[in-house]
Amino acid sequence: MAPPARQLSFGDEYMPKFNWRSLDDAYYDHVEKAEMTGIAWECLRRNAPFEEEYQAILSSGRTIDDGFRQHWGLVFRS
Fold this sequence. Notes:
With 78 residues, the chain is mostly helical. The chain has a domain at 25-78. It contains four helices and no strands. It has helices at 29-33, 36-44, 48-60, 66-71. The radius of gyration is 15 Å and the shape is elongated. The protein starts with 28 loop residues before the first helix and ends in a 7-residue tail after the last helix.
């Protein structure tokens, strides 16, 4: 599991260092093949308020409830 978003540093294994201005499309191949939920998760896990609330729930021994899921958009229609 990746460390909390606020602990990520540029160039580490979770946030690879690359030149975003490069014309080499290989950097973005994984994004083009990703599903929408995967991209959404990558954005959400870097959201400091989400990470703080999630860690607070875990450290208190509580479980993730429907209110948390609803608040952070983790509820999907089937």
